[in-house]
């Protein structure tokens, strides 16, 4: 299967193993579904293996659709074995205090599942943790739900019933029934937020973990500190620029000058490297728009005008002209055929 820009974001393969186990218990034939999403089920059980986050999210959404369950992600955690996420999971399980838990979570979340935003602010009244994923990851509701249940199951060991004083704001659209979110996460949960956020009262930060092994926590922290980011190919300026462009089409499309500054080189040097690679800044922007247009038209129900602005076009008419050039048909015709 052709590698897409979204495939540069990766996640621990062990997570797919637990998801598949739960889906199989529902009677689903999971291997063909995984392969249809571009995943190799044989890789799910390999220690330290990583797979495409985007394809795992698609896999979960497909399973949720087939199962007819829009809270599939919440329930899928029952299929996970202890420590499915490796050092990350064991580290969280053995964090001595809530403060240690949050700091460990914030420092290492991007290593288990690459994020675009991952910030932790500890103030006098509350700790505020925010995270979101690249806009290239179009379908992530089930995946976020699954990760939250894992985290809240561990946090509940510290907080008990006080877990319901934790405030949770989720990007995902509001499910048909919110009861399971309130039961498995917190009663204080809301939806359709700009980013995912968890707010924990400061008075809870010193709460101790009765099951903690401080030495094991230290070992897991050291192991994750030594772990390199998986996107080694980001050192390729063309790949780096493509990702930067694709992630910022809707806000402020990067220019040759801005990318040269970000990559620490002169515009002239960057231009030469792009020329040597057989491309240009304009060609990269066009290529990213084309790939994102194909995905947004075929994988979402967003309006054509919304897609147009997400791609950085000033008007829908400009999007239509580009679509005819890319696909030989209008956006609405492409959506109908795909």
Helix % is 40-55%
Count of individual helical segments: 16
Mean pLDDT: 91
Radius of gyration: 21 Å
Low-confidence stretches: none
- Separation of termini? 17 Å
- How are strands sequenced across the largest beta sheet? 3-4-7-5-6
Report on the structure:
By secondary structure, the protein is an alpha+beta fold. The chain contains 16 helices and seven strands. The chain has helices at 14-25, 30-36, 53-67, 72-76, 87-93, 98-112, 141-159, 179-184, 214-225, 237-248, 256-263, 267-276, 281-299, 304-310, 316-327, 331-337, and strands at residues 10-12, 50-52, 117-122, 126-132, 167-169, 189-190, 196-201. A five-stranded mixed sheet has the order 3-4-7-5-6, with helices on one face. It has a two-stranded antiparallel sheet with strand order 1-2. The longest helix has 19 residues, at 141-159. It is globular, with a radius of gyration of 21 Å.
């Amino acid at each position: 299967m052709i590698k897409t820009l979204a495939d540069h974001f990766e996640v621990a393969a062990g997570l797919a193993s637990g998801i598949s186990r739960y889906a199989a218990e529902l009677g689903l034939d999971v291997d063909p579904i995984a392969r249809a999403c571009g995943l190799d089920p044989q890789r799910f059980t390999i220690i330290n293996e990583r797979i495409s986050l985007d394809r795992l999210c698609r896999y979960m959404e497909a399973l949720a659709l087939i199962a007819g369950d829009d809270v599939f992600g919440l329930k899928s955690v029952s299929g996970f074995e202890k420590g499915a996420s490796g050092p990350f999971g064991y580290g969280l399980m053995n964090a001595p205090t809530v403060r240690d838990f949050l700091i460990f979570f914030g420092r290492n979340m991007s290593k288990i599942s690459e994020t675009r935003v991952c910030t932790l602010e500890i103030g006098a009244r509350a700790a505020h943790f925010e995270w979101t994923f690249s806009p290239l990851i179009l379908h992530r509701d089930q995946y976020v739900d699954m990760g939250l249940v894992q985290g809240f199951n561990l946090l509940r060991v510290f907080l008990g019933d006080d877990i319901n004083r934790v405030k949770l704001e989720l990007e995902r659209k509001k499910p048909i029934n919110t009861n399971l979110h309130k039961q498995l996460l917190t009663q204080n949960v809301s939806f359709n937020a700009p980013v995912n956020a968890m707010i924990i009262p400061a008075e809870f930060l010193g709460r101790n973990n009765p099951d903690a092994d401080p030495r094991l926590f230290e070992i897991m922290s050291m192991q994750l500190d030594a772990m390199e980011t998986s996107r080694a190919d980001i050192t390729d300026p063309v790949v780096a620029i493509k990702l930067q462009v694709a992630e910022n089409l809707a806000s402020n499309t990067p220019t040759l000058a801005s990318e040269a500054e970000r990559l620490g080189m002169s515009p002239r040097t960057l231009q030469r490297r792009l020329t040597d690679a057989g491309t240009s800044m304009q060609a990269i922007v066009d290529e990213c728009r084309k790939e994102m247009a194909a995905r947004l038209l075929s994988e979402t129900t967003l309006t054509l005008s919304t897609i147009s602005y997400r791609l950085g076009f000033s008007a829908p008419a400009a999007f239509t002209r580009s679509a005819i050039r890319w696909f030989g048909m209008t956006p609405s015709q492409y959506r109908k055929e795909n």
